[in-house]
Design a protein that fits this description.
With 218 residues, the chain is mostly beta strands. The chain contains one helix and ten strands. An eight-stranded antiparallel beta barrel has the order 1-4-5-6-7-8-9-10. A hairpin with a 4-residue loop joins strand 4 and strand 5. The longest helix has 31 residues.
Length: 218
């Protein structure tokens, strides 16, 4: 059984993520209508790899851990100011799973993760000239991730939700002036477990991912 306080905190986190995502979309739409000369919404594409901490670590010392995962994503972005951008996007990844009980390390199929995130980006250094190589921006985003995998492996067994609240912070640096290519680095936290009385993960925990990649699009 999950602790009531933990379940309440999880619900609050999820509601906050939805509210932030809705605010981003509304602000971007109204800004495009109200500001003369604002650029039209533009598309971005990204690709990279993700390293994750274990999805499950139980009291017996068993870990269910994903391998390095290739990632692909697409997003839409709006200018909200001279150095501020609002963005919303979808990212997908697939990782092989390993179960390690301290005696054996075995393959356990694969896990898929799809993230729907909305956030704000701010240019911070090296961005005085439009399109300048070396321009660095920071961002924060929140939303939901859908995590699926073999139904005989925790945390995918029946009774739990496949949707989890996600928060992410990161930075991107422009690496070319002629084309909008960026190198990106992000840290992501996903809250798993304790979402319902039937959740196979009774005690909630946080899974962290480090994402390294490239992005095309300003």
């Amino acid at each position: 059984m999950p602790k009531p306080a933990a379940a309440a905190a999880l619900r609050s986190f999820a509601l906050a993520a939805v509210a932030l995502g809705s605010s981003v979309v509304v602000a971007a739409t109204s800004g495009a209508q109200d500001r003369r000369g604002v650029t039209a919404p533009r598309w971005r594409g990204e690709a990279g790899i993700a390293y994750s901490t274990p999805l499950v670590h139980d009291g017996n010392g068993t870990d269910v851990a994903p391998a390095l995962a290739p990632t692909l994503g697409v997003a839409i972005a709006w200018d909200a100011g001279p150095r501020t951008v609002l963005a919303a996007g979808l990212r997908a990844s697939r990782a092989g799973l390993r179960v390690d009980d301290g005696r054996a390390d075995e393959s356990a199929g694969a896990a898929w993760q799809a993230d729907l995130l909305a956030g704000v980006e701010q240019q911070v250094v090296g961005c005085a000239r439009p399109g300048a190589r070396g321009c660095v921006s920071v961002r924060g985003a929140a939303g939901f991730g859908r995590l699926t995998g073999p139904d005989d492996v925790l945390p995918f067994r029946s009774g739990g939700s496949s949707f989890h609240p996600v928060g992410e912070v990161g930075l991107a640096a422009r690496v070319a002036s002629a084309r909008p290519w960026y190198a990106s680095l992000a840290a992501q936290a996903m809250r798993i477990g304790g979402a319902s009385t039937g959740d196979p993960i009774a005690e909630p925990g946080t899974v962290t991912r480090i994402l390294l990649g490239v992005r095309y699009g300003r």
